[in-house]
Design brief:
single chain; mainly beta; five-stranded antiparallel sheet; 3 helices; 44% strand
């Protein structure tokens, strides 16, 4: 099953070398797992400019986490809006899988005490956070919020009792926890369901069903499925995907974006498949020894933001491009031994 240490330290990197650098960088910082800033919680891009560079985006806001040798003892947040980059110091070395949850609210998973949980901050600037589902199994992670922020879906597939629990949905205001995909009947660890993401109308959830993992605990083979937010029989929309990444509905709900093994090289590239099912299509080729992964749509669906990594780098960077890969450019580049994780682009 997924390695908890790898997942905590380098939440979304499919590359062992890059993940190891982030592990070493984080463990060299303060081990404190306190939720809350260790210094002024919000700083502008001017304060962060000595360590990183960024470029403007045309519309909306992109939220992402920065892991590794941040210098603050934990994962940090960035929000890029226009040409402004906001830096938020969290003081939490175990924060991962950050996403928007309506307005300025965010959801993420963390492990301030043994047993990973999903948390929500009503305002990403503020250290105040509450567990989304206090009674959920330990090992809950990979949360995604509905577009209006009223519901959160998450995976609970690293529980302490050794079962793959599946996906659950819970109201952000509190309420009944609803299991929407069942646990494995035979109590096995594989397959497991992961990376849930809501449709634009909030009625459906797309997710990965992972059938094989690498030594580092990352998906090596899996399927993409869609299920109603209340549960029911899932619909298979793409199967036997090599090295699959988090699926995301397009803003019009008609397509699903994810990463997988490139058709022409050994790296990762970005693909789409009709939300009703069909043949996946690679959006653009990546050069040898390069990888495009962990992508999201722009609010109007005309562009993509994604992580970019090349063999031998000690960091990654964020890039945006048109859907066919044209007009590709770097919008964030960190210092050595840092990575940008799980970009989430909203209006």
């Amino acid at each position: 099953m997924r390695n908890a240490t790898f997942r905590r330290r380098a939440a979304s990197s499919p590359f062992p070398a890059l993940a190891l650098l982030v592990v070493l960088a984080v463990t060299s910082c303060s081990p404190s797992a306190t939720i809350g800033p260790t210094r002024s919680p919000t700083e502008t891009s001017t304060a962060a400019a000595n360590a990183e560079t960024h470029d403007a985006i045309d519309s909306g806001r992109i939220l992402f986490a920065v892991e590794g040798d941040t210098g603050s003892g934990g994962t940090e947040l960035r929000v890029l809006e226009g040409s402004d980059l906001t830096r938020v110091v969290t003081g939490d070395p175990t924060m991962a899988h950050v996403g928007w949850a309506g307005g300025d609210a965010i959801v993420y998973d963390s492990e301030p005490t043994p047993g990973r949980r999903v948390f929500r901050r009503p305002d990403y600037h503020d250290e105040t956070a509450e567990p989304v589902a206090p009674d959920a199994p330990a090992g809950s992670a990979d949360a995604g919020a509905s577009p209006d922020g009223t519901m959160v879906a998450f995976a609970a597939s690293m529980p302490s009792d050794g079962r793959a629990v599946g996906l659950s949905v819970v109201p952000t205001s509190g309420g009944e926890l609803v299991a929407i995909t069942p646990p494995n009947a035979d109590q096995t660890l594989l397959p497991f369901d992961d990376n849930p993401s809501f449709s634009p109308d909030g009625r459906k959830i797309v997710y990965l069903r992972v059938s094989a993992v690498s030594e580092e605990g990352e998906p090596r083979m899996g399927d993409v499925l869609v299920v109603d937010v209340g549960g029911g029989t899932p619909q298979l929309i793409s199967s036997d995907i090599p090295y699959p990444g988090p699926p995301r509905f397009s803003p019009d709900g008609g397509q699903v974006l994810f990463h997988q093994r490139s058709a022409s090289a050994a790296g990762l590239s970005l693909w789409v498949v009709p939300a009703s099912g069909g043949e996946p299509r690679e959006l653009f080729a990546v050069p040898p020894h390069a990888n495009a992964f962990n992508a999201d749509w722009s609010p109007d669906g005309s562009q993509l933001v994604f992580e970019w990594y090349q063999d031998g780098w000690d960091r990654n960077e964020l890039r945006v491009s048109n859907l066919d890969g044209s007009a590709m450019r770097t919008i964030w580049r960190g210092m050595g031994r840092t990575t940008a994780e799980t970009p989430d682009w909203t209006e």
